[in-house]
Amino acid sequence: MSEADVRTLRVLIANERRDRLELLANVVAGLGHDVIARAISVEEVGAVTAREGPDVALVGLGSHADHALDLISAIVHEASCPVIALLAGDDPAYVHEAAKRGVFAYIVDSTPQELASAIDITLQRFAEYHSLQGAFGRRATIEQAKGILMARHGIDADHAFEMLRDHSQQNGRKLVDVAQSVVDSNLLLTRPATSR
Q1: By the 8 A CB rule, do 23 and 30 touch?
Q2: Is the pTM of this model over 0.90?
Q3: If phi over 0 gives left and psi between -120 and 50 gives alpha, with beta otherwise, what is residue 85?
Q4: Cβ atoms within 10 Å of 96's Cβ, excluding its own
Q5: Nearest of 69, 40, 33 to residue 54 by alpha carbon
Q6: Whether the Cβ atoms of residue 62 and residue 68 lie closer than 8 Å to each other
Q7: Residue-by-residue DSSP string for 143-155
Q8: pLDDT, tens digit, for every residue of 91-148?
């Protein structure tokens, strides 16, 4: 892959140790990415994550595992980006707990090239995860619309799907958009009127 193929990423780095933040910032910049935020405290990292919208977050394990785990939790809660945990040595218990909190990957005492590879793999897996999540959401919407049509018209699931598909094709709209319209309309039409 040529340098022109490499995308510049917006990277958030977090660690309770300021000296480690500076080292990591230099490595990230050396890889050609932008360090958009550096966070030390758990209190600030959530707000910084929400405000800056990083492509990826790197959380180093500093002096206290609980602090690093809290950083991960705060970032995952606010971000739509993957988090990579950085460790100085093997720590299976920490990795297990970090995974429960939503970390997408971890690397141990790595070189800049290993960090670059980890970021690349993590971003690919994160995109696949979001694609899968979107597919499940679209399927759920279509199934919900089919159920509404089945109840409304007294038809089976196949006929309900045909109705959605036919309307989609006749109107040049995506099937999931037609299904969402059915669901939204049903919510409006079945709500009890409220007195003013």
Answers
A1: no
A2: no
A3: beta
A4: 9
A5: 33
A6: yes
A7: HHHHHHHHHHHT-
A8: 889 889 999 998 888 888 778 888 888 888 888 888 787 777 777 878 888 899 999 9
